[in-house]
Amino acid sequence: MVVAIDGPAGAGKSTIAKKIAEQSHMFYLNSGNFYRAITFSALQNGIDPLDETKIIDEAKKCSLSLDNGRMHLNGVDIEDELHTDAVDRWVAEHSAIVAVRHVVNKKLREVSKDIDVVAEGRDITTVVFPDADLKVYLDATPEVRPKRRFDQGTSKLSYQDIVENIKKRDKIDKNKPFGSLTIAPDAFYLDTSDLTIDQVCDKVVDKIKDEKKLEWKNRGQKK
């Protein structure tokens, strides 16, 4: 079973998707961390972040894997290096490169083959898993999203800088030539602005249960 979750930066996708995966005994797949790993690798290797050709080459060379849910680059755990301000500065631009998206999408499909996953990102419901069993789009107001990111305490940026970064990220995400952020027509849309994490999780888990019931019912009818 594939549960695909999309939404803009700061909507709570990662926190919620991870918790849903735990509750539903499914594998949590964060597509954004694959892009972050590529950006991290490029910066670590001194590659000009504006050189698309070299960024594409780096994406193709990177050996990315997950071990106990943590991202590994060439066999080294880099999970704690993925949300630095430096990576935040460039990941949106790198993830907008079509060739990089093709590399990551292929890897995501390989990782999720033959297992139940909760996958989250920007184009999971529309490009990576267009046939997902359940599609969810999590949203929140422009006022709420920067505050959530600021309250996480993972950034050294000021609140206003985070606001500007999210605005820039939204613009890039919604105008990508491939894999832009859009709401799939058949997605379950949920505004999380005034909801707690548990309330959001409960609503999505209920949808998962409904899909599983439908799946078993269809299997029974085919027998």
Strand content bin: 15-25%
Average pLDDT across residues?
91
What gap, in angstroms, lies between the N and C termini? 20 Å
- For the largest sheet, list the strands in their spatial order: 2-6-1-7-8
What is the number of strand segments? 8
Summarize the structure.
By secondary structure, the chain is an alpha/beta fold.
What can you tell me about this protein's structure?
It is a single chain. This protein is of the alpha/beta class and about 220 residues long. About 50% of the residues lie in helices and about 15% in strands. It has nine helices and eight strands. A five-stranded parallel beta sheet has the order 2-6-1-7-8. α1 crosses α9 and α3 runs parallel beside α5. The longest helix has 26 residues. It is globular and about 50 Å long.
Give me the secondary-structure topology:
Elements lengths: L1 E5 L6 H12 L2 E4 H14 L7 H10 L2 E4 L2 E4 L2 E2 L7 H11 L2 H14 L5 E5 L2 H5 L5 E6 L4 H8 L7 H16 L13 E4 L5 H26 L1
Parallel strand pairs: 1-6, 1-7, 2-6, 7-8
Antiparallel strand pairs: 3-4, 4-5
Helix pairs in contact: 1-9, 2-3, 2-4, 3-5, 4-8, 7-8
